[in-house]
Hints:
The complex is a heterotrimer of chains A (234), B (476) and C (265).
Chain A: H1 8-20, H2 27-39, H3 53-66, E1 69-76, H4 80-90, E2 96-99, E3 116-119, E4 128-132, E5 135-137, E6 142-146, E7 161-167, E8 171-172, H5 175-189, E9 199-203, E10 208-209, E11 217-218, E12 225-233
Parallel strand pairs in A: 1-12, 2-3, 2-4, 4-7, 5-8, 7-12
Antiparallel strand pairs in A: 5-6, 6-9, 10-11
Chain B: H1 8-16, H2 19-25, H3 27-42, H4 46-62, H5 64-77, E1 81-85, H6 88-101, E2 106-109, H7 113-117, H8 120-126, E3 130-133, H9 136-144, H10 160-170, H11 183-200, E4 203-206, E5 210-212, E6 217-222, H12 226-232, E7 236-242, E8 246-247, H13 250-264, E9 272-276, E10 290-296, H14 300-305, H15 319-322, H16 325-330, H17 341-352, H18 359-362, H19 369-373, H20 380-393, H21 399-412, H22 415-434, H23 446-449, H24 462-475
Parallel strand pairs in B: 1-10, 2-3, 2-4, 4-7, 5-8, 7-10
Antiparallel strand pairs in B: 5-6, 6-9
Chain C: H1 4-7, E1 12-15, H2 19-23, H3 26-38, E2 42-44, H4 54-59, H5 62-76, E3 81-84, H6 87-100, H7 105-115, E4 118-120, H8 121-128, E5 137-145, H9 148-154, H10 158-164, E6 168-173, H11 188-191, H12 193-210, E7 214-217, H13 220-232, E8 238-241, H14 242-246, H15 256-262
Parallel strand pairs in C: 1-2, 1-3, 3-4, 5-6, 5-7, 7-8
Helix pairs in contact in C: 5-7, 6-7, 6-9, 12-13
Amino acid sequence: MTDHPLSARDRILGNVRAALKATENDNARTFMVQKRLKLHKRNLIPSRAELPMESKVRLFQTTLEGQSASVAKIAAADALPGAVAQYLASQNLEKTIRTGDDPIFEGLDWDGAMITRSIGATAGDDPVALSMANYGVCETGTLFLTSGPRNPTSLSFLPMTHIIAVNERDIVGSYEEAWDGIRLASDMERRGASGLPRTVNLISGASRTGDIEQTIILGAHGPKNLHVIIIGKA
Amino acid sequence: MKPLSHKFRENAGKALDNPTLQTALKNVPEGFVAKRAKARSKLPEFDALTEQAQQIKSHALAYLDLYLEAYEKQVKASGGHVHWAGSGTDACNIISGICRDAGARLVAKSKSMVTEEIALNAHLEASGFEVIETDLGEYLIQIRGEVPSHIIGPAIHLTKEQIVDDFRRIHVDLPTDRVLDEPESIVNEARLILRDKFLNADVGITGANFLVAETGAAVIVTNEGNADLVQTLPEVHIVVATIEKIVPTTEDATTILRVLARSATGQEISTYTTFTSGPRRESDPDGPRETHVILIDNGRTELLASEFHEVLRCIRCGACMNHCPVYQSVGGHAYGWTYPGPIGAVLTPSHVGIREGYHLPHASSFCGACEEVCPMGIPLPALMRRWRNRAYGEGLTSLRQRLAMKTWLWFAKRPRAYHFATSIFIPVFRMVGRRERLARFLPLPKGWVRHRAFPLPEGSTFQRQWKRRRAGEVQQ
Amino acid sequence: MLNPAQTKSTASVGLFATCLVDLIRPNVGLSAARLLEDAGCTVDVPSRQSCCGQPAYNMGEADGARELARMTIQSFENYDYVVAPSGSCAGMLKLHYPALFADDPVWSKRAQAFSEKVFELVSFLTDVCNVRSVDAKLDCRATYHDACAGLRELGVRDQPRHLLASVKGLELLELKEPNSCCGFGGTFSVNYGDISNAIVEKKAADILSLDVDLLIGGDVGCLMNIEGKLRRQGQTTQVRHVAEVLAGQAGRISTRRAHNREKPA
């Protein structure tokens, strides 16, 4: 019988334990790690995120605008097709958009706004996409989007123009608040072993590069135009 | 990557004499350094956050075996594959195997320093795959046949003019009247060229900024969005990461993210931060059908056991090199291996040996700017000094330097002999200092006198003057 | 002027002169002693001192550095305070001596106790002796370079500026990058002379862009480096240690530039 060679996995983990002078079945260590993973406690959260709702929305908007995005506000979801049409007209873009199957988009009067809307992921031939963000985080003007049929990930990166709608009530102070919300929603839908959707995208402005002499140029690979529409009442 | 660190002195000299490079390097202090300072001042909690970030990484390293196991379990639960690679070669073989099994032809990559470290591109190309770098900076150096000169700005050593020339040289099908003289037109051109590659790539390879043990997610940060195209469009996605990228929880990753971009580019957050785990799920309309994570050791467990273990906290923000006067003067290529600047001065010898990497920890004025700006509190000068101790212990320090030091120490340890010797030498040095033409007849350090006037001693030593003063006081 | 240090029994200070001050700029040592005495300290300069050992320590010759450290600790540990007119050498004594003896239980304790007595000159004057102003005069335009070790290891930044503000006639301007390294780094400036030169050239350019008469700093090593560069470039900007300026021992600073500026062309 030949010796069973250690797998790379066992060798690496063995070397880690040797370096740490740890043993394989140390209950105290295991308990420590399990507890930390289970509690996933928050660390320090910058105080700039602790604001009354109105100021949160304002901070969210100004921060995003500083990150080369444009922001519009509408009173209610009904006004979304009109706001999208208005933005597209201002950019001289055709009124054709690609979206996921988020229920909020259903029942809106897209025809009335002369917008042709198609649903699904994109293969790169859609100039404009509209997504619905789960959360807007005011501390850095960041939108949280999760993957799934409501929100195909490719829509956030392939089109030249990306419009993201977010409910005002979903504008929160810190990333941690957004994570809590996403975890809760994921639990209810039982999405994945991790308790999270496959992909969570944090988007904080238009695509950019500084690779040429540190000059910031927009639209490196992702959208050159990011337009955010805040919906006052869903 | 074949190390060229032994040629540091020579290559640094060439870098200093290269006016184009010197022009490009001016962008480092004017860009990264100024922007980081601004970002830090805008966030009152910045320093406190760096402390927490350090604690998180230290904790993760202290329980690394368990977090790796937890991470692996979560990746598998979400349908991904996990591979373990002891060495860079093992990792390369695993990756080319995955590409082969996928029947791949074209492999699209986003920026990843570990793939530079293990020379993945060369391996994949030798295995018959076409490899395309999609980060603009990486693409620029790929078409030049170069390696990155900076861990977050790989093409920081290039000027706009050089980039335009390369574009014209490589893309010969471009109309000659195509205006390419502004960064914007170059970016647009690159977007067009690379878009096609994204859509046709069979395998996408990304690195990872963090691996989250709690969820099995890989976290990838970019400004261009290229990593997201790489990990969304191809049928197969491979995450290549070294084992120290593990953090316990989503909250922990979030805390470190707050200091990462601010330290790196001075942004509050990078444009795109993506947490992703496993292949597309049943109802997902897009995303890869197959995902793999390659967990690479390649020297990390040795580092963990060594006096250099603190370097494993590094999150590759690049702040140390941005603030390093040596890096700012010679750029990244002179360092001769994957990681330049102060972090490279500590990491490189552990990979290529202190004989090959001798110069890197020695070519530092120990000004401490790197340690000051390191968000992970890595004591870079102290770690460089440990390499110097090893080099000295192994007899790698030149005989001339060792003799000079031994002589100095002999006198310094014997104050009487020291004070006697100085009373003889000082007048000689004074004479030389007054008449610089005489300096060449003395064994003065060339590295000094080539560029600087030799210091002129004022007169007799302080010790003598002090004694005289004291004697005078007593007489009074 | 009555200082808190004087109100107590007088503090005894062992002045660690540093080798560069001893050999090249003794006036800095004399100025430091005067400042300490003015602040009410009893100053002594033990003759059993030479080099702090930093060059050996940084070369990787830790054993040699330890021998010098033992000698220095023995010579100085009986004073109330140990003061050096250099952030770099004070940092070595204060922070790196304990590190050198980390594995030696006996000397580790001694190095730690010694460490607590060690101060860089200017921060000692302000932070321990509560000196708020000096009685000195120097008519010129000057700027201040923050030497790296004092700044980053010991937090010396505002203290010299506060005291310099009390020097009559002195106009202190800030460099664009006061806290960037001058490229000295001890043996680094010799072993990697070309790189060191590239760094000091930037420092010199920053100084020259201010059109000052005088550069002030807290470390003779850095000052020697910057002065060497300025002289080689044929510049006339003067260079002094902060102790010389504060003690009124800076000599005459040629203000040719200033006069030229005032004169109509």
